[in-house]
Each structure stands twice: as C-alpha cells, then as structure tokens.
Design goal:
Number of domains: 1
Distance between the termini: 15 Å
Strand content: under 5%
Shape: globular
Low-confidence stretches: 100-107
Length: 212
Amino acid sequence: MSWSEILTFALVASLLVISPGPNGLLIAKTVPTSGRAAGFANVIGFIIAFFIQGTLSILGLSLILLQSALAFAILKYLGAAYLCWIGIKALIAAYKGEPAPTTTAPAKRKRTLWRAYSEGLLTNLLNPKTAMFYLAAFPQFISVGETPILAAYQLIAVHSVINALWFSAMVMLLAQLTKAANNGSFQRWVKGLTGIVFVGFGLKLASIKPNL
C-alpha cells in the first residue's frame, strides 16, 4: 500500500472522526462529571471496538476474495456508491443547515473507568456505520496482489490513531471543542467539506478499473 493511498484514507477517516456523532456525545457526557481519566477510557473503548469491527470485516472480505474476484469487484463498486451516498447526505444537510445532535446533558453519576471503557466499546460495536465504513473502504485500498489482512490492519491503525488524537484533544479541551462542535456554521462547514470529498472520492473509485 502506497503512502498516497494511506494519506487518502486518512483524509476520509479524519472527516468522519471530526463530524459530530455518538463518540463526541459520549465524551461530552462523561468528562464533566467523571473526569479526564474516564474520557480517556472512552477513547480506549473506541479503539478496541474499531479493531474488533475491522477484524470481522477483514474476515468477511477475505472469504469473498477467495471465493470470487468478481464478487470482490462488485463489493468494491458498492463501497464506492456507499461513500458517494454519505457525501450526498452530508451536502444536503449542509445546504439545509440541519443541526446535528451534538448537545447532551452531563451524566448524573460519576462513571468508573471500567464503565467508561465499556460505554466507549459498546457505542462503536453496536454502531453498524463503523462496520459499513470498513466494508466500503477496505476494497478500495486492498489489491489482490497484497496481503489483505496486513493492508486492512494498516487502515484500522490509521483510523484508530486519528480517533485517539482528536478525542484525546477533546477530553483535554472539552469546553472549547464542544462549543465549536455545537456551532451551526462549524457543522455546515464540516458537512459540506465531507460531502465534497466523499462524493469525489466515490466517483473516482467507480471510474477506475478494479485491480483484479
């Protein structure tokens, strides 16, 4: 896998990470009452969930690749279509100025580190969008000539590092980042940029021949 492919994936993953979502909500709910350590426990839960979801996706894609190159190519195009769909939804939301559900009341009870970790883990394990993102992204970056498991884990590691950096910063600077995330203009800017990148990325992938 080339550095250009890794950087392209990092850009797409970064836009997903910084977009308002359940992970940011959980941290905003945890840190005010349970402290930084609990927030970092949330982040660890996120990362473990990514590797579990990614491993399941790798196993499924490996079976498909072994069974049929055509099926893998079809999955590649479906993944490109899914990325375009994400982008179109983001552009529509940015155009309409729809607010994202980024506010939440702080937790009433202080969380233990184990509970905070478990909530971070389950938030992502039970979120089908994580698995769908991996299933859509992996075929775009994994060539038949390379080891799919190694390449996929490289992408998971990149996604995990981006999550760790962003949400660790959010834990440390919660007040400032939460205020920015709740700002309507910030949300529209992020959604618009996400939409453009995802639609362009999906169209580019759909226009090239599968590497089979």
